[in-house]
Design a protein that fits this description.
This protein is mainly β and 381 residues long. It is 7% helix and 33% strand. Strands 20, 21, 22, 23 and 24 form a 5-stranded antiparallel β-sheet that branches.
Length: 381
């Protein structure tokens, strides 16, 4: 009885604070049971929260994911697009209903073209969309606008037919509630073109940061990308995550796998230069990372990292282990009961502040999509 009363109290507070989205009617009758499950996940272990069916849509290793904090859902966009998959739809997962939704059908290849300004577009009657593209860690939720932003060029997407010269490739903004795309015009200025880079959201300054061979910022006015005069230490296959407690961007992994962690302390305003520093763990495990999922726990003040590992050097990964990275101690701590099958290239880990739960999405092009959930308890490390 006490537990039920406590759960109802928590849900009531969340509904008042977060609005009617928390227990919308269309989330189904299992919302309370799923909320209870998320609040009472076993500590420091992955739980298989939802598994898709054979024949459903499949996760692509080159695609990216973000967490829509306003609506409490995972949003996935991106494709392998090596003449094998042309999925330019958005896939959404609601943890409270444990249901996937696909926002429409992929655009037919004959609609892939350039607009009058030489920008790649697709779609017709269903509205304009970006092409099927590799997005890596270039999908992020913009809390200021309540929208998803994608900053990825069409590199590695085969051109379906002669279309002319690509003159510009702006960022795309997606409004999930309206299921509508629009291009960021950048006020006519050149757009950053950083294939395989990483994107994160500086909640302290309301600034969007994209970082690869260079670093650019989009300020609170969401007007023009500003190139920041700082060196770059990565090219691609890294993951960028913003630490809301320390007000800094952390970079995990690199094209050549590494356990070195980089920290970028931004300047006071968008476009102002910040400072870089890096560290390697002096003791304990040192997982080598490339294209690895990472998320920040805003309550515990630490990062959760999932790393593939192989039976021997140079062999294919056979399993994955989960680590907590503590910036204060600059070290990784392995969760002994949180091993998983190998996850491959993966940028799909998010933290849900409502339940202090992490969600990891796994699966290959030939296997069902699986959503895992984990609750971190630092007192049991």
């Amino acid at each position: 009885m006490r537990r039920t009363f406590w759960l109802i109290s928590v849900l009531s507070i969340c509904m008042v604070a977060g609005g009617v989205w928390f227990l919308r009617r269309d989330r189904g009758g299992d919302s309370l049971a799923n909320a209870d499950l998320l609040l009472n996940l076993p500590a420091n272990r992955w739980v298989e929260y939802q598994r898709g069916q054979q024949g459903d849509w499949t996760r692509q290793g080159h695609s990216g994911m973000t967490f829509d904090t306003a609506r409490g859902v995972l949003v996935i966009f991106g494709s392998d697009s090596h003449n094998e998959n042309w999925d330019n739809t958005v896939h959404e997962f609601d943890p409270l209903s444990r249901r996937w939704q696909t926002h429409g059908d992929p655009s037919p290849l004959q609609t892939y073209r350039l607009d009058a300004q030489g920008r790649p577009i697709a779609g017709n009657d269903d509205g304009l969309r970006p092409w099927a593209i590799h997005t890596y860690d270039l999908v992020e939720y913009d809390r200021l606008r309540g929208a998803v932003i994608v900053v990825s060029p069409i590199d590695h997407t085969p051109v379906p037919r002669p279309i002319g010269r690509v003159a510009d490739q702006p960022a795309w903004v997606y409004w999930p509630a309206e299921r509508r795309w629009e291009m960021h015009d950048n006020r006519g200025e050149p757009n950053p073109k950083l294939f395989g880079a990483a994107l994160t959201y500086d909640t302290n300054r309301d600034v969007i940061i994209v970082y690869g061979n260079s670093l650019w910022e989009l300020g609170p006015d969401r007007g023009t990308w500003q190139k920041v005069a700082v060196p770059a230490h990565h090219s691609m296959h890294h993951t960028a995550v913003f630490d809301t407690r320390r007000g800094a961007m952390f970079i995990f992994g690199a094209y050549r796998a590494t356990c070195e962690v980089w920290r970028y302390q931004p300047g006071p305003v968008a476009g102002a230069a910040g400072t870089w520093s890096s560290t390697k763990p002096g003791s304990g495990p040192c997982p080598v990372l490339s294209s690895a999922p990472v998320a920040f726990d805003g309550k515990a003040g630490v990062f959760l990292v999932v790393a593939n590992h192989a039976a021997s050097e140079g062999s294919r990964a056979t399993a994955a282990s989960t680590y907590v990275y503590d910036p204060e101690q600059a070290r990784f701590m392995q969760l002994p009961e949180a091993d998983l099958p190998a996850i491959g290239m993966n940028y799909m880990l998010a933290w849900d502040p409502r339940f202090s739960a992490f969600y990891l999405v796994t699966g290959r092009h030939d296997t069902p999509v699986t959503v895992w959930a984990l609750r971190l308890d630092r007192t049991r490390l």
